[in-house]
Amino acid sequence: MSRLCDLSLDEVTDGIRNQHFSAEDYVSHILERIAKLDADIKAFVSVNSDHAIESARRIDSKIRRGEKVGYLAGITVGIKDNISTKGLRTTCASRVLADYVPPYDATVIRKLKESDAIVIGKLNLDEFAMGSTTEFSNFGPTRNPWNLDYVTGGSSGGSAAAVAAAECTASLGSDTGGSVRCPASFCSVVGFKPTYGSVSRYGLIAYSNSLEQIGPIARTVSGVVRVMNVISGVDPNDDTTRTVASPYSVESNRNHLRIALLNNLTVNAQPEVSKCIYSAMDTLSSAGCICEEITLDSLEFALASYYVIAMAEASSNLARYDNIRYGFDLDPEGYEWNSYFSKVRSNFGEEVKRRIIVGTYVLSSGYYGRYYLKAQKVRALLRREFKSLYSKYDVIIAPTMPILPFKIGEKIGDPIKIYYMDIDTVISNLTGMPAISIPAGFSNGLPIGLQIMSDDFQEQKIFDAALLFERTAKIQVRSPL
Amino acid sequence: MISNYSTKIGLEIHCQLTSLKSKLFCSCHCNYREYSPNENICPTCTGLPGTLPLLNQTAIEKAAMVCMALRCTIPNNILFYRKNYFYLDLPKNFQLTQYNAHGITSIGVDGLLGYGQGEARIRRVQLEEDPGRLSYVKGSSGSLIDYNRAGVPLVEIVTEPDFHDPKDVRLFLNKLASIVEHLGVCDTSLEGAVRCDANISIGDSRRVEIKNVSSFGDVEKALKFEMTRQKAMLNYEMEIRGETRHWDEQRKITKQSRTKEEEQDYRYFSEPDIPSIQIDEDYLKELHSKMPELPDERKERFINYYNLTEHVSKVLIEHKDLADYFEESAKIYFAPKEISSIIVTDLMSYVDDNSKKLGSTIRYIKMSPKQLAEIARMIKEGIVNRKTAKQLLYEAVVSGKLITSSENETNFRKIDDEGLILRSIENVFETESLAVLDAKKNPNVSNYLLGKVMELTKGRVDPGRALSQINKKLLEY
Ligand SMILES: [Zn+2]
């Protein structure tokens, strides 16, 4: 029999509901596992031990009394540490929020709690979600459970690593330019970026508002779908949310999907990655899908456009961290206001400072038209082109990452190289359309992810394709630890 | 020589939408004045990480009404922008406002407002949030921040530099204040509810901004001071620098701002968290039908219905409170000329002597409109002479008590007799034969006829009943 921690999300909820094991047993087991493994992996920033056990006991007593329990009863969810949790420190892996305890829950947290999911702890990230490796964290890098010398990808590195190492059932990340899908690919788990407006951002500490969505990570497609069924939907606290077609089904009932492989992205990829994606296309063909290759020239401008928009919005979003109302311990006595402000903001990490400076520059008068406005035009163009592609295809596939995971520290001195890693994922953030990364294979023991994208609110098509691939390809999703 | 300089003045008026229940982007109270510091706050208006602005739809409605009253064009697509700058009273270190440089998306543009003999073009009207407030502690170098006001909705009204004389600025501001009062969007008597910045340039000299003028009354004084200062400099051939100056309320002078304000780059971009707001024709049509009576319309009505002079009507409508007080009183005893003249001459000079503005104090005087009506009646009936009436008035204003002498009751009984009413109407129709002809074409004139009937009967008939009789009678003509 497999260990409790190895169970999939569906197996956990079934097991607890049918009293094969108690929620308390399960949570205790997960906590023990965190205690044993996390010193090496460093996925967690805070562990919510006491509350987790308490919640588990509440669920167990409900079940014993024969009361109804929630849709996600007893699962343990790790939360990226840029999502506000009431009473639980939320740091964004930054020194400037080192002591910040939110007085309110993000909408996704409220919904998870209402469905009896258990918040097991807060997970590491690149500071303010700015990075693609989880090396830019004030707490130090998270390590890849498949090989501890390697990066997890980012910025939701803690969220992907914790799920891959079975330190939690599922997790939430945020995806601004690939921050859920990149680490999901590097850690061989399933990570999903919903359509913009599907999931409330209320409580998500903003990096780039117009691009980002909160998204789930799990070891199975159905785990991701079930978490989506809880967290998605219109939220009166977020005016950008829209009605979604949930609940999504976990039964794939479409085998004849029309699929296009975006070959600009395989051409640019490392040969091992490219080979793996073509073999994934063969797998889908053999399962009954109609696959062909396409090229899209306008993708050339996507990455530059993404970074201009993201950094511009970030420079404004991060202006509020002046340590006046909340933040960290720094006595203002003896400072004149402007110098205190400079002192406070010198505590941002290098990458965050870089993005604030670039973002400030591209919004400056005289440069707005040259950068920000142009980037918005590229964005609109991409959206139009993808809209027309989806009149011909159900889903589009591509690599999630153009490269294999690499060693910690290998690229940290070269920010441009790190930005280039996002070339395949930023597309869906610019168009606002949904995308998933699912495990597609390994090269020398290092994971490769397949990205499946679709049109606005066509998440079901993505889930159908992903379920079909998962069932047919049978890729290992549990790390060796 | 001085007269050769042409003066150009433009205004930027901030007007809080005080009648709203909640702030512009959260559910905290709009009326922040009743709270202890930092009591009227929430995660959103203090800019806590992860919070999102939720647009107060009623604020759009109120701002659109202001735009309609100022004859602005309202675009079909409204956006909010971030104005990025660092200041202690600004919780997010950007202000949510509107901006037209990347396409017209503010709530209103290209309006026009007439005042006195002139008119001024309105460049734009925009909706934005008020920042918090700083207070400095005496004897300490520190300052305190109160966020109770942060997020309170404001309309900013920007005029073209169409004024040449500070006197016109005063007339314009009075008119504007009366409009927002009549619209019911702003109680201008509340401290800080209306603020005005002005810019002034003389001849070819650079523009000087005057900030921090917290009462409309002081704007004229500040501009007069500034004109004198600048003209004196020009006479001595001194160069006028483009700068920002602050109005010193105590010393009644403008002062160079302590910190030299550089040309700020606000890095405007549209707020991603607030989807664009569509305003369609139907919405505007419905809003138009809900528009309350505006000062100009009210003035016309006062002239036609109450038969008041242009001047008296203008004085009354300058403050909604005053006009309301007058109408309430005239409703009780129909002697509009007497009542308005008591208000405009006796009551206003009394209040002026007590060095307060009547507009903001009328609601605090103790005399009720009914008591004023009673005084008017006693004058009309010859019960008291004007000198005694004035004394009675001042006593009532202060004490709220009206000492009346014994009255001849029969003179006041309401006229219930249909025949008597009809006879009065016939009398009026005879003496006002020209107006009767007019009334057949223009229904407004029947109000004038009604006024005459009320005058004749000393207000002792029910106006509604009389009006329907008049209209019936008109059909027979
Ligand atoms: Zn608030």
Number of strands of chain B: 15
List the strand order in the largest sheet of chain A: 1-3-2-6-8-7-12-13-11-9-10
Q: What is the helix/strand order of chain A?
A: HHEHEHEEEHEHEEHEHHEHHHHEHHEEH
> Strand order, biggest sheet of chain B?
5-6-9-1-10-11-12-13
CATH-derived topology of chain A: Amidase signature (AS) enzymes
Structure report:
The complex is a heterodimer of chains A (481) and B (477). Chain A has 481 residues and is an alpha/beta fold. In chain A, 38% of the residues lie in helices and 15% in strands. An eleven-stranded mixed sheet of chain A has the order 1-3-2-6-8-7-12-13-11-9-10, with helices on both faces. Chain A has a two-stranded antiparallel sheet with strand order 4-5. In chain A, strand 2, helix 4 and strand 3 form a beta-alpha-beta unit. In chain A, helix 2 packs antiparallel against helix 3 and helix 10 crosses helix 13. The longest helix of chain A has 19 residues. Chain A is globular, with a radius of gyration of 21 Å. The model of chain A has no long low-confidence stretch (mean pLDDT 96). With 477 residues, chain B is α+β, with helices and mostly antiparallel strands. In chain B, 40% of the residues lie in helices and 18% in strands. Chain B is built from 15 helices and 15 strands. In chain B, helix 10 runs antiparallel to helix 11 and helix 14 packs across helix 15. Chain B is globular. Chain B starts with 6 loop residues before the first strand and ends with a helix.
Write a compact overview of the structure shown.
The complex is a heterodimer of chains A (481) and B (477). By secondary structure, chain A is α/β, with parallel strands linked by helices.
Set down the secondary structure blueprint:
The complex is a heterodimer of chains A (481) and B (477).
Chain A: H1 9-17, H2 23-41, E1 44-47, H3 49-64, E2 76-80, H4 107-114, E3 118-123, E4 143-144, E5 147-151, H5 157-164, E6 170-175, H6 181-186, E7 190-193, E8 213-218, H7 221-231, E9 258-262, H8 263-267, H9 271-286, E10 290-294, H10 302-317, H11 337-345, H12 350-363, H13 372-389, E11 395-399, H14 415-420, H15 426-431, E12 435-443, E13 446-453, H16 459-473
Parallel strand pairs in A: 2-3, 2-6, 9-10, 9-11
Antiparallel strand pairs in A: 1-3, 4-5, 6-8, 7-8, 7-12, 11-13, 12-13
Chain B: E1 7-16, H1 57-69, E2 77-78, E3 81-84, E4 94-97, E5 108-115, E6 118-129, E7 133-136, E8 143-146, E9 153-159, H2 166-183, E10 194-202, E11 208-213, H3 216-235, E12 243-248, E13 253-256, E14 269-270, E15 277-278, H4 281-290, H5 295-305, H6 310-317, H7 320-332, H8 336-353, H9 358-361, H10 369-380, H11 386-399, H12 418-431, H13 433-441, H14 444-456, H15 463-476
Parallel strand pairs in B: 11-12
Antiparallel strand pairs in B: 1-9, 1-10, 2-15, 3-4, 3-14, 5-6, 6-9, 7-8, 10-11, 12-13
Helix pairs in contact in B: 2-3, 5-6, 6-8, 7-8, 7-10, 10-11, 12-14, 13-14, 14-15
The complex binds zinc ion.
